[in-house]
């Protein structure tokens, strides 16, 4: 297997809901493992997600988990997940679903560089950048 870079998102207790939402947005196959499955059954966090992986038909891999017990979850502004390509309908669909219950920082519209681009933060606090590359030619 070739090496690949995968975004790994941390959540403060709602990883299952977030990852299921991303499955609705992008499609694909979602695998979830809980802390309870790995020796921490009977604890308050047994049903929380220790590891989740979504593999989509477009070849995206998105991973995530609830913060481990004893670790404080903090959301920062040092990461955005960027999705780009030239399939306007596909990317517009992602934008509509991701921004629907979230907040829009940059409206999804044609930008000065010629592409359609937008930035939003979804309802789980994850920042997204969606870019539809303008076909030249």
From TrEMBL:
Transmembrane segments: none annotated. Residues 5-130 form the Glyoxalase/fosfomycin resistance/dioxygenase domain. InterPro entries: Glyas_Bleomycin-R_OHBP_Dase, Glyas_Fos-R_dOase_dom, PhnB-like. This is VOC family protein. It comes from Streptomyces daqingensis.
């Amino acid at each position: 297997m070739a090496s690949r870079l995968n975004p790994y998102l941390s959540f403060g207790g709602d990883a299952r809901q977030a990852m299921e939402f991303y499955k609705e947005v992008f499609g694909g196959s979602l695998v979830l493992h809980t802390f309870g499955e790995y020796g921490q059954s009977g604890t308050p966090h047994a049903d929380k997600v220790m590891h989740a992986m979504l593999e989509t038909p477009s070849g995206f891999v998105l991973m995530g988990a609830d913060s481990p017990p004893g670790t404080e979850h903090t959301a920062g502004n040092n990461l955005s997940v960027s999705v780009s390509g030239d399939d306007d309908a596909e990317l517009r669909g992602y934008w509509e679903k991701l921004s629907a219950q979230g907040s829009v920082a940059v409206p999804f519209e044609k930008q000065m560089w010629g592409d359609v681009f937008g930035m939003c933060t979804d309802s789980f606090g994850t920042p997204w950048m969606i870019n539809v590359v303008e076909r030249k030619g």
